[in-house]
Amino acid sequence: MRAGFGQFSEAIPEYLRFALQYGVTDILLNTPKLPAVGGKWELYDLVKLREAVELRLGGTNMKLSALENVPTNFYDHIMLNGPRRDEQIDNMIYTVRNIARAGIPIFGYNWMPSHVWRTTPAIIRGGAIATAFNYSEAKKLPLTHEREYSDEEMWNNLEYWIKIITPIAEEEGIRLGIHPCDPPVKKLGGIPQLFRSYDSYRRLLSIVDSPSNAIEFCQGTISEMKDSANDGIYDFIDEMCRRDKILYVHFRNVSKPDPEDFHEEFINTGHVDMYKAMKTYFEAGYDSFFIDDHVPQTFQDTHWGHRGRAFANGYIQAMIEAITKEKSE
Question: Pairing between strand 106-110 and 175-179?
Fold first, then answer.
């Protein structure tokens, strides 16, 4: 188990030096800012991106372990069965092949054409500001894509895509994983949030049984689900780890397992026992990396959240060390 940093979109030396100084080994770039002529990414640009990350400072190496998300307009017609679906599928096949051939082993994406939703922020420990969600507020917002979509048609669109892209990923030796819908409520802006329960992930994995069809395990979002009450979160971590379906983990915490009314928390103050969670990953054989994901906005921090991320990353590294040493004694 390893610590990583993510949630930045460019391999800027400032961010990479910060990551290196704080002891991470794995870098995840979220929706990297690459040329996107024709709705696809070129191999040359992806190789340059990987090489920019893999700095060697002080004898310590970092690697670009994953890319998370392409621009939504690369595949919105795939998600919604729009008129450009087949064109976008060809472009995404091209992009996935290039990610793999550039030496980047994981591609995480989502099935949220309307993106992540939040409503009025919450004030948490010491006056820090955290993102929050209230379904009653969100229901007052308009449709995002002109009409209401059904669960059935969104599942049909997903199954069509999974059956095409998984053999490509297998051929190229890359693993693909879908982020849960955040927040995991029934519908937002007329779009079903397909990945809102544990069973929805089991259904995804049954479409094509392959190491390349896996999960981008956002523990924060999964712990928002009602399934996560009464210790359900630990059982699900164990199940997915033992099936080798977790590609990497967003190790964050939320206030309660209620997708309709929650707020994000500091890593050590939410409803999930993070020690128990980390112990579960370890005992179930998880062998990849953790990133902090979202962090609360704290006093005099930067927009990216350098202070909050240093705190969360230190917590993650200490937890990994404690669990590992405890189990080796």
Answer: parallel
CB 188 within 8 A of CB 117: yes
Contacts of 37 by beta carbon, 8 Å cutoff, 6+ apart: none
Up-side HSE of residue 4: CA atoms within 13 Å toward CB? 28
Q: 1.10.540.10, 3.20.20.70, 3.20.20.150, 3.60.15.10: which CATH number matches 2-328?
A: 3.20.20.150
CA distance 271 to 269: 7
The pLDDT of residue 230 is above 70: yes
pLDDT at site 13:
87
Residue 62 confidence class, pLDDT cut points 50, 70, 90:
confident
Task: Determine contact, residues 96/169, Cβ cutoff 8 Å.
Answer: yes
How many other C-beta atoms can be found within 10 angstroms of the C-beta atom of residue 325? 9
∠151-157-163 over CA atoms, to 5°? 130
| Closest-CA residue to 52 (of 20, 18, 14, 12) | 12
Q: What contacts 294, CB < 8 A, 6 or more positions away?
A: 7, 131, 220, 252, 264
